[in-house]
Design a protein that fits this description.
There is one protein chain. This protein is 45% helix and 15% strand. It is of the alpha/beta class. The protein has an 11-stranded mixed sheet, sandwiched between helices. It is globular and about 60 Å long.
Length: 344
Amino acid sequence: MGLNRARIAIDAMGGDYAPGEIVAGAIRAKAELDVDVLLVGDLDQIRASVASPEHLQGIELVAAEGTIEMHEEPLSALRRKPQASINVAMDMVKQKRADAVVSAGHSGAAMAAALLRLGRLKGIDRPAIGAVFPTVIANKSVLILDVGANVDCRPKYLEQFAMMGTIYSRYVLGVEHPNVGLINIGEEPSKGDELSLQAHQLLQDNPNIPFAGNAEGRDILSGQFDVVVCDGFVGNVLLKFAEAVGESVLQILREELPQGIRGKIGTAILKPNLRRIKQRVDHAEHGGGLLLGVAGVTVISHGSSQAPSVFNAVRLAKEAVDNQVLDRIQAQYQRVAMPAADGE
């Protein structure tokens, strides 16, 4: 399916601003990206969210009943609500009616639904959410994983994250020789807790991972690393802190630059530069994170996503489909894992 136009199933009912902003982002994606869009959810609410039925022209509507609320325990809620929008969207991929799922709803429910309905890629113990961050080097990004799928990790999970991140960075982000780092409190191999020490050894000993050593907090956005790995607890804190920093920078610029007549003139002159700054630091420009390790392209977007974030989440899903990221991860991982398995 990846060789044809990507078909993206969007959970229209997931997120703080659903369905209005989700639908608006989907409409823009349909208009500007070479994708087919399927909106999954309460059809009456979806239709009521647009000013005219013509806005939904060319978008397939798929009926679902209910959604998984943020306060609900994911597994039990998914079982109680088999026709919930995230379940139906995942089934669309399982049935080959869609290539990818985008959801801004309950992230735990999205991950659980992907695991239950799509399953893991062979050889992967735990999937990881990979998020792309900007760095201080223009046009250079860093992939951080896991940013929330696994609060507790074993060393081998981090090794698998590094393997998947390496493949994604190389084939999707276009980094020919990616550098992989392990988030830690110091550069020295002897630093960190037991998880960090054991993971460091595994990464260092794996010839298929271009491991460049520990990455301290100040190194993550320096451009020194192309991929950094950590457990989901650390990664999620890092993700939300980075988003807050980006929002704070933008707010400060909005408040301070227009001060006085010189500021107003300067702001007008610098408008193109400010737009580029926004594109580099605003989390809405990145759309969310790709759930790597499950047998279907799944993008987990921010719960606060509005139309721009949804649009970029669809773009991220399209890139993953077009670049056949799952096939590449599976083929590459199996190629490097088979000799180790034969030797056991």
